[in-house]
Amino acid sequence: MADSYNYRIRKITPGGVVSTLAGSVGGSVDGQGIAARLYLPAGITVDAAGYIYVTEDLTRKIRKISPSGNVTTIAGKYTIGTCTSVNGNVSIANFCNPWGIAVTHPNSINGSVYVSDYNTIRKIEPIE
Question: Are 84 and 94 in contact (CB under 8 A)?
Fold first, then answer.
């Protein structure tokens, strides 16, 4: 689950035990587990391999978290005062207001990622 205002992605077991998979304080830093920084994670989805995809509305980024908790940015970059949706590879793609997120073929590790961005649905091709 996205614990937005605590800047964390949490795991809850069927027995109700809560643990932190990634994040600790606000920010936008890729890294492992609690060393990674997330800023108001919002939308969340999981693929068949256990990778978690997260939208960050305020940083305008899409993050990917491995089953072991390694956080990487797969699209988007934060630019102060700029809200533009730009298509392209990870180095140039921009989002305005990413919120909802889903993966196609959730039983496959080769699905695309779809992100609701302002009033548009954006597609991110499978990332190896």
Answer: yes
Residues 6+ apart with CB under 8 A from 15: none
Two structure tokens written together for 40: 């108001």
**Measuring CA to CA, which residue among 96, 105, 97 is closest to residue 45?**
105
DSSP state string for 57-121: TTTTEEEEE-TT-EEEEEE----TT----B-SSTTT-B-SSEEEEEESSTTSTT--EEEEETTEE
pLDDT in tens, 1-16: 999 999 999 999 999 9
Written as six digits, the tokens of 70 are: 């390694």
**Measuring CA to CA, how many Å separate 83 from each of 2, 55, 77, 93, 127?**
23, 15, 10, 12, 24
